[in-house]
Amino acid sequence: MTQIPSYPFDKIYDGYTNIDTIDYYKGIKIHRVKTFLGYNKSTVKKIGGYLLFAFFTWKKAFNLAKNIDKVFFYHTGPATMAHSSMVFKKIYKKKCYIWTQDIWPDAIYAYGIKKTFLSNLLLKTYLKKLYKNFDKVFVSCPGFISIVKTYYSREIKYIPQWYPLENDVIKIAKLKSSNEKLQFTFLGNLGTAQNLENVCLGFLKAVDDGLDATLNIVGDGVSYTKLKQIIDNSKTDKIILWGRKPQSEMNSFLEMSDVMIVSLADDPLLNMYIPAKFQGYLCAGKPILGILNGEVSKIIKINSLGVTVSPSNIEEISKSFESFVGKKDRIIEFRKNSSIFYEKNYLKFNSIANLITNIQGK
């Protein structure tokens, strides 16, 4: 059960009509509810979308509950997406499970909702009631456990996310680079959370100091215009802003790159996250330049996957780019460690097997 697809463009995808419908994927029946549009332009509409999705799925749950045994919630957005658990668990006594990939109420404030004493109290009260409906709770990042524990008194299990194109990307790890100069690449959303302005400023300083390399930025988002201004004003040809590219082309960018960048602004919430791109970079056996603090920074340092620096220090960022120059043996070691770490911690088979074991158990 989900909604008519519209994210992140805030418009209905081609081939869909914004009405309740049923379609199929590999024989799986998908129940879709209407999407409330306008969330990119209005905070009020964003909140309205959260509430309406909760209502539409709550209503549909009454029809679905009679013919199911267990309910699994893949929580990647607003916590209200799991509101139908009120029906499945409270009324029909079905076993319910949730895999939390996003932390509320912290995340909702990052989306632009103003934090007040009343809003915080209401959201935390709602979350305590919501989590009581679940027989088991899983989280995608270890740092989430301490927060979710404030709403859920039983065991919380960490099960990591995998990279969706794992089978194709894992082959890239075996390829050798033929680049004459280093290719640094960032893939993904260009938002304020990604702190890419500082990444560009640090790279430009390194170029001014003599660095001969290319920085590729692949993606789109609210920071795109600002980044373009920085690049245009610098008159450099060493930063390439590729824009949004289809998922089918991501492997090509991974293959051409020597070092992959994962960056986040210095924020207590963001410091807990493990961005999905991180798994993709490791899967491809790439050295990581981590321009961030927190969980991912610790993983990079402890497992020698690359270099990590403070996201707020332009000087450190500049030197981090330079630290890869002429260090072929070091890069080879980082590549090896990245592949090993992915296979030990993020393989799709292991995470799915872990989920199934926990859901099929008591």
UniProtKB/TrEMBL annotation:
Keywords, in A-Z order: Transferase
Pfam families: Glycos_transf_1
InterPro entries, sorted: Glyco_trans_1
GO molecular function, one term: glycosyltransferase activity
Domain Glycosyl transferase family: 173-328
Keyword Transferase included in the entry's annotation: yes
Entry keyword annotation includes Acetylation: no
Top-rank lineage group of the source organism: Bacteria
Record-given protein name: Glycosyltransferase
Species per Swiss-Prot/TrEMBL record: Thiospirochaeta perfilievii
